[in-house]
Amino acid sequence: MRKLTDRERKAYAEDGVVHLREAFDASWVEALREHAEDALNAPGRLGRNLSADDDPGRFFSETFLWHRHAGFKDFVHSSPAAELVADLWGAAGINIIFDQLLIKEPGTREPTVWHHDLTYWPVRGEQVATLWLALDEVTAETGAMEFVCGSHRWGQRYHPIAFAGHSTYDTDEPEVPDIDALRDELDFVQYDYAPGDCTIHHGMLVHYAGGNQSASQRRRAYVTRWAGDGVVYDPRPNIQRMLFEPDLEPAAPLTSRLWPQVWPRS
Protein backbone atom coordinates (compact mmCIF):
# COMPACT_ATOMS: atom_id res chain seq x y z
CA MET A 1 0.00 0.00 0.00
CA ARG A 2 1.10 3.56 -0.70
CA LYS A 3 1.85 5.15 2.69
CA LEU A 4 0.42 8.54 3.53
CA THR A 5 2.60 11.47 4.55
CA ASP A 6 2.05 13.86 7.42
CA ARG A 7 1.45 16.59 4.84
CA GLU A 8 -1.35 14.57 3.26
CA ARG A 9 -2.97 13.91 6.64
CA LYS A 10 -2.76 17.64 7.40
CA ALA A 11 -4.38 18.52 4.05
CA TYR A 12 -7.32 16.24 4.84
CA ALA A 13 -7.72 17.66 8.35
CA GLU A 14 -7.57 21.30 7.21
CA ASP A 15 -9.09 21.26 3.72
CA GLY A 16 -11.32 18.21 4.09
CA VAL A 17 -9.78 16.53 1.03
CA VAL A 18 -6.47 14.97 0.03
CA HIS A 19 -5.31 14.03 -3.47
CA LEU A 20 -3.27 10.81 -3.61
CA ARG A 21 -1.30 10.21 -6.80
CA GLU A 22 -0.71 6.61 -7.95
CA ALA A 23 -2.71 5.25 -5.04
CA PHE A 24 -3.83 2.19 -7.05
CA ASP A 25 -1.71 0.34 -9.58
CA ALA A 26 -2.57 -0.48 -13.18
CA SER A 27 -3.89 -3.95 -12.35
CA TRP A 28 -6.65 -2.50 -10.14
CA VAL A 29 -7.48 0.17 -12.73
CA GLU A 30 -7.75 -2.34 -15.58
CA ALA A 31 -9.86 -4.71 -13.51
CA LEU A 32 -12.24 -1.93 -12.48
CA ARG A 33 -12.58 -0.74 -16.07
CA GLU A 34 -13.68 -4.24 -17.06
CA HIS A 35 -16.13 -4.43 -14.16
CA ALA A 36 -17.50 -0.98 -15.08
CA GLU A 37 -18.27 -2.21 -18.58
CA ASP A 38 -20.07 -5.19 -17.07
CA ALA A 39 -22.24 -2.80 -15.06
CA LEU A 40 -22.92 -0.51 -18.01
CA ASN A 41 -23.95 -3.43 -20.21
CA ALA A 42 -26.07 -5.12 -17.54
CA PRO A 43 -27.05 -2.65 -14.82
CA GLY A 44 -28.45 -3.86 -11.54
CA ARG A 45 -31.71 -2.61 -10.05
CA LEU A 46 -29.92 0.44 -8.61
CA GLY A 47 -28.42 1.47 -11.95
CA ARG A 48 -29.58 4.90 -13.14
CA ASN A 49 -29.02 7.35 -15.98
CA LEU A 50 -28.86 10.72 -14.22
CA SER A 51 -28.83 12.77 -17.44
CA ALA A 52 -31.85 14.63 -18.73
CA ASP A 53 -33.64 13.15 -21.74
CA ASP A 54 -32.22 15.82 -24.05
CA ASP A 55 -28.63 15.41 -22.81
CA PRO A 56 -26.42 14.20 -25.69
CA GLY A 57 -24.24 12.29 -23.24
CA ARG A 58 -24.91 9.84 -20.43
CA PHE A 59 -24.34 10.15 -16.68
CA PHE A 60 -24.49 6.60 -15.32
CA SER A 61 -24.67 5.77 -11.63
CA GLU A 62 -25.05 2.51 -9.79
CA THR A 63 -24.64 1.82 -6.07
CA PHE A 64 -23.98 -1.29 -3.96
CA LEU A 65 -22.21 -3.04 -6.82
CA TRP A 66 -20.02 -5.10 -4.53
CA HIS A 67 -23.08 -6.94 -3.21
CA ARG A 68 -23.81 -8.36 -6.67
CA HIS A 69 -20.48 -8.40 -8.53
CA ALA A 70 -17.46 -10.48 -7.47
CA GLY A 71 -14.95 -8.09 -9.03
CA PHE A 72 -16.14 -5.09 -7.05
CA LYS A 73 -16.36 -7.25 -3.93
CA ASP A 74 -12.71 -8.19 -4.41
CA PHE A 75 -11.76 -4.51 -4.58
CA VAL A 76 -13.68 -3.65 -1.40
CA HIS A 77 -12.08 -6.48 0.57
CA SER A 78 -8.62 -6.80 -1.00
CA SER A 79 -7.52 -3.44 -2.44
CA PRO A 80 -5.57 -0.82 -0.45
CA ALA A 81 -8.66 1.41 -0.16
CA ALA A 82 -9.82 0.56 3.37
CA GLU A 83 -6.29 0.61 4.74
CA LEU A 84 -5.61 4.00 3.12
CA VAL A 85 -8.64 5.43 4.87
CA ALA A 86 -7.64 3.80 8.16
CA ASP A 87 -4.15 5.29 7.83
CA LEU A 88 -5.63 8.72 7.14
CA TRP A 89 -7.73 8.63 10.30
CA GLY A 90 -5.64 6.41 12.55
CA ALA A 91 -8.79 4.30 12.85
CA ALA A 92 -8.96 0.93 14.57
CA GLY A 93 -11.56 -0.44 12.15
CA ILE A 94 -13.11 0.44 8.79
CA ASN A 95 -16.58 -0.42 7.47
CA ILE A 96 -17.73 -0.15 3.86
CA ILE A 97 -20.92 1.94 3.57
CA PHE A 98 -21.42 1.40 -0.16
CA ASP A 99 -19.66 1.61 -3.50
CA GLN A 100 -20.73 3.46 -6.63
CA LEU A 101 -19.89 3.95 -10.28
CA LEU A 102 -20.12 7.54 -11.55
CA ILE A 103 -19.54 7.62 -15.30
CA LYS A 104 -19.92 10.70 -17.49
CA GLU A 105 -19.60 9.82 -21.14
CA PRO A 106 -18.20 12.38 -23.63
CA GLY A 107 -20.58 15.26 -24.25
CA THR A 108 -22.54 14.84 -21.00
CA ARG A 109 -23.97 18.18 -19.91
CA GLU A 110 -25.39 17.02 -16.57
CA PRO A 111 -23.41 18.44 -13.62
CA THR A 112 -23.16 17.05 -10.12
CA VAL A 113 -24.74 19.76 -7.99
CA TRP A 114 -23.08 21.40 -4.98
CA HIS A 115 -23.68 19.10 -2.01
CA HIS A 116 -22.07 17.19 0.79
CA ASP A 117 -22.45 13.47 1.27
CA LEU A 118 -23.26 12.66 4.86
CA THR A 119 -26.84 13.95 5.03
CA TYR A 120 -27.88 11.55 2.24
CA TRP A 121 -27.03 8.46 4.28
CA PRO A 122 -28.38 6.90 7.51
CA VAL A 123 -25.06 7.13 9.35
CA ARG A 124 -23.56 9.72 11.68
CA GLY A 125 -20.03 10.37 12.92
CA GLU A 126 -16.80 12.21 12.23
CA GLN A 127 -14.95 9.42 10.44
CA VAL A 128 -17.02 9.20 7.25
CA ALA A 129 -15.34 9.75 3.89
CA THR A 130 -15.55 9.13 0.16
CA LEU A 131 -12.67 7.68 -1.86
CA TRP A 132 -13.04 8.79 -5.51
CA LEU A 133 -10.83 6.68 -7.77
CA ALA A 134 -10.21 7.82 -11.35
CA LEU A 135 -10.25 5.16 -14.06
CA ASP A 136 -9.46 7.72 -16.80
CA GLU A 137 -7.56 10.97 -17.13
CA VAL A 138 -9.83 13.49 -15.41
CA THR A 139 -9.61 17.28 -15.71
CA ALA A 140 -11.93 20.24 -15.18
CA GLU A 141 -13.06 19.79 -18.79
CA THR A 142 -14.16 16.20 -18.25
CA GLY A 143 -15.78 16.69 -14.85
CA ALA A 144 -13.19 16.76 -12.09
CA MET A 145 -14.66 17.58 -8.70
CA GLU A 146 -14.24 21.01 -7.16
CA PHE A 147 -14.14 21.26 -3.36
CA VAL A 148 -14.82 24.13 -0.95
CA CYS A 149 -11.80 23.95 1.33
CA GLY A 150 -12.64 23.72 5.02
CA SER A 151 -16.41 23.46 4.51
CA HIS A 152 -16.43 20.23 6.53
CA ARG A 153 -15.71 22.43 9.56
CA TRP A 154 -18.63 24.85 9.03
CA GLY A 155 -20.74 22.88 11.50
CA GLN A 156 -23.74 22.97 9.17
CA ARG A 157 -25.68 20.02 7.76
CA TYR A 158 -27.32 20.71 4.38
CA HIS A 159 -30.42 19.32 2.72
CA PRO A 160 -29.65 16.45 0.32
CA ILE A 161 -30.52 17.36 -3.27
CA ALA A 162 -31.47 14.77 -5.87
CA PHE A 163 -28.95 14.64 -8.72
CA ALA A 164 -31.65 14.17 -11.35
CA GLY A 165 -35.41 14.39 -11.58
CA HIS A 166 -37.80 15.40 -8.81
CA SER A 167 -36.28 15.30 -5.32
CA THR A 168 -37.84 12.76 -2.98
CA TYR A 169 -35.69 13.90 -0.08
CA ASP A 170 -37.67 15.68 2.62
CA THR A 171 -35.46 16.80 5.50
CA ASP A 172 -35.26 19.80 7.80
CA GLU A 173 -31.77 20.97 6.85
CA PRO A 174 -31.31 24.24 4.93
CA GLU A 175 -30.27 24.07 1.30
CA VAL A 176 -26.64 24.42 0.28
CA PRO A 177 -25.91 28.14 -0.19
CA ASP A 178 -25.21 29.61 -3.63
CA ILE A 179 -21.57 28.60 -3.71
CA ASP A 180 -20.83 30.21 -7.07
CA ALA A 181 -22.01 33.57 -5.71
CA LEU A 182 -19.45 33.21 -2.89
CA ARG A 183 -16.38 32.56 -5.03
CA ASP A 184 -14.64 35.72 -3.85
CA GLU A 185 -15.12 34.69 -0.20
CA LEU A 186 -14.30 30.96 -0.24
CA ASP A 187 -11.26 28.85 -1.04
CA PHE A 188 -11.56 26.13 -3.69
CA VAL A 189 -9.40 23.27 -4.87
CA GLN A 190 -9.67 21.11 -7.97
CA TYR A 191 -7.30 18.34 -9.08
CA ASP A 192 -6.33 16.67 -12.31
CA TYR A 193 -6.30 12.87 -12.00
CA ALA A 194 -4.34 10.20 -13.81
CA PRO A 195 -5.82 6.69 -13.82
CA GLY A 196 -5.12 5.23 -10.36
CA ASP A 197 -5.13 8.61 -8.61
CA CYS A 198 -7.78 9.21 -5.98
CA THR A 199 -9.10 11.82 -3.65
CA ILE A 200 -10.44 11.11 -0.18
CA HIS A 201 -12.86 13.73 1.07
CA HIS A 202 -14.74 14.22 4.33
CA GLY A 203 -18.44 13.38 4.40
CA MET A 204 -19.32 16.99 5.25
CA LEU A 205 -17.15 18.65 2.60
CA VAL A 206 -19.14 20.66 0.03
CA HIS A 207 -18.22 19.75 -3.55
CA TYR A 208 -19.39 19.82 -7.17
CA ALA A 209 -18.49 18.42 -10.58
CA GLY A 210 -19.31 19.83 -13.99
CA GLY A 211 -20.38 17.85 -17.02
CA ASN A 212 -17.99 16.16 -19.40
CA GLN A 213 -17.28 18.71 -22.13
CA SER A 214 -14.85 16.48 -24.01
CA ALA A 215 -15.94 15.04 -27.34
CA SER A 216 -13.91 11.86 -26.87
CA GLN A 217 -12.65 11.37 -23.29
CA ARG A 218 -14.74 9.33 -20.86
CA ARG A 219 -14.87 10.15 -17.16
CA ARG A 220 -15.17 6.91 -15.23
CA ALA A 221 -14.85 6.94 -11.46
CA TYR A 222 -15.26 4.11 -8.97
CA VAL A 223 -16.30 5.55 -5.63
CA THR A 224 -16.24 3.86 -2.24
CA ARG A 225 -17.78 5.30 0.92
CA TRP A 226 -16.17 4.41 4.25
CA ALA A 227 -16.79 4.70 7.98
CA GLY A 228 -14.33 4.49 10.86
CA ASP A 229 -14.34 4.67 14.62
CA GLY A 230 -17.43 6.03 16.38
CA VAL A 231 -19.75 6.04 13.34
CA VAL A 232 -23.27 4.85 14.15
CA TYR A 233 -26.56 4.00 12.45
CA ASP A 234 -28.76 7.08 12.08
CA PRO A 235 -32.05 6.06 10.38
CA ARG A 236 -34.06 9.02 9.09
CA PRO A 237 -37.05 9.12 6.75
CA ASN A 238 -36.90 10.46 3.20
CA ILE A 239 -33.17 10.14 2.53
CA GLN A 240 -31.18 7.90 0.19
CA ARG A 241 -32.36 4.32 0.44
CA MET A 242 -29.81 1.64 1.11
CA LEU A 243 -29.81 -1.75 -0.61
CA PHE A 244 -31.79 -3.11 2.34
CA GLU A 245 -32.45 -2.08 5.92
CA PRO A 246 -29.71 -3.17 8.34
CA ASP A 247 -30.70 -5.21 11.37
CA LEU A 248 -29.49 -2.51 13.75
CA GLU A 249 -30.92 -0.31 16.47
CA PRO A 250 -30.53 3.48 16.10
CA ALA A 251 -27.12 4.69 17.36
CA ALA A 252 -25.66 1.17 17.06
CA PRO A 253 -22.19 0.64 15.51
CA LEU A 254 -22.44 -0.09 11.79
CA THR A 255 -21.02 -3.60 11.54
CA SER A 256 -23.70 -5.71 9.87
CA ARG A 257 -24.40 -7.65 6.70
CA LEU A 258 -25.08 -4.36 4.89
CA TRP A 259 -22.00 -2.56 6.26
CA PRO A 260 -19.35 -5.15 7.16
CA GLN A 261 -16.04 -4.27 8.72
CA VAL A 262 -13.41 -4.94 6.06
CA TRP A 263 -10.29 -3.68 7.82
CA PRO A 264 -8.35 -5.04 9.62
CA ARG A 265 -8.73 -8.02 7.33
CA SER A 266 -9.62 -11.28 9.00
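The record above closes out task 2.4. Task 2.5 opens with a second protein, given below.
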Amino acid sequence: MTIREKLVRKVQSLPEESLSKVYEFVETIEKTDEQEGLLKRLQKIKIQGPKDFSRNIDLYMSGEKKIEDNLD
Protein backbone atom coordinates (compact mmCIF):
# COMPACT_ATOMS: atom_id res chain seq x y z
CA MET A 1 0.00 0.00 0.00
CA THR A 2 1.43 3.39 -0.99
CA ILE A 3 1.56 6.43 1.27
CA ARG A 4 -1.12 8.07 -0.88
CA GLU A 5 -3.44 5.12 -0.39
CA LYS A 6 -2.81 5.14 3.35
CA LEU A 7 -3.58 8.86 3.51
CA VAL A 8 -6.77 8.50 1.51
CA ARG A 9 -7.98 5.71 3.78
CA LYS A 10 -7.13 7.68 6.89
CA VAL A 11 -8.89 10.81 5.60
CA GLN A 12 -11.93 8.80 4.60
CA SER A 13 -12.20 7.43 8.13
CA LEU A 14 -12.08 10.87 9.78
CA PRO A 15 -15.25 12.55 11.02
CA GLU A 16 -16.57 15.32 8.79
CA GLU A 17 -15.76 18.05 11.33
CA SER A 18 -12.03 17.16 11.20
CA LEU A 19 -11.70 17.52 7.44
CA SER A 20 -11.34 21.30 7.47
CA LYS A 21 -8.27 20.99 9.71
CA VAL A 22 -6.75 18.39 7.39
CA TYR A 23 -7.42 20.61 4.40
CA GLU A 24 -5.79 23.63 6.09
CA PHE A 25 -2.75 21.52 6.92
CA VAL A 26 -2.40 20.31 3.33
CA GLU A 27 -2.70 23.88 2.07
CA THR A 28 0.08 24.94 4.46
CA ILE A 29 2.37 22.21 3.15
CA GLU A 30 1.61 23.17 -0.44
CA LYS A 31 2.40 26.85 0.18
CA THR A 32 5.63 25.96 1.97
CA ASP A 33 6.77 23.84 -0.97
CA GLU A 34 6.14 26.75 -3.33
CA GLN A 35 8.21 29.21 -1.32
CA GLU A 36 11.76 29.91 -2.34
CA GLY A 37 14.53 28.76 -0.12
CA LEU A 38 16.52 31.24 1.93
CA LEU A 39 19.64 31.00 -0.22
CA LYS A 40 17.71 31.70 -3.43
CA ARG A 41 16.13 34.76 -1.83
CA LEU A 42 19.50 35.97 -0.55
CA GLN A 43 20.97 35.67 -4.06
CA LYS A 44 18.43 38.24 -5.26
CA ILE A 45 19.63 40.89 -2.81
CA LYS A 46 21.56 43.63 -4.54
CA ILE A 47 23.54 46.26 -2.71
CA GLN A 48 25.38 49.29 -3.96
CA GLY A 49 28.69 50.03 -2.40
CA PRO A 50 32.29 50.87 -3.09
CA LYS A 51 34.34 48.45 -5.16
CA ASP A 52 36.52 47.67 -2.13
CA PHE A 53 33.58 47.11 0.23
CA SER A 54 34.11 43.38 0.74
CA ARG A 55 37.86 43.77 1.31
CA ASN A 56 37.49 46.71 3.70
CA ILE A 57 34.18 46.01 5.39
CA ASP A 58 35.80 46.34 8.80
CA LEU A 59 36.95 49.87 7.96
CA TYR A 60 33.49 50.81 6.71
CA MET A 61 31.83 49.29 9.77
CA SER A 62 34.16 51.14 12.15
CA GLY A 63 33.68 54.42 10.29
CA GLU A 64 37.33 54.78 9.28
CA LYS A 65 36.17 54.78 5.65
CA LYS A 66 32.96 56.46 4.51
CA ILE A 67 30.78 54.74 1.92
CA GLU A 68 29.63 58.06 0.51
CA ASP A 69 33.22 59.13 -0.16
CA ASN A 70 34.04 55.95 -2.10
CA LEU A 71 31.05 55.42 -4.39
CA ASP A 72 31.72 55.61 -8.13
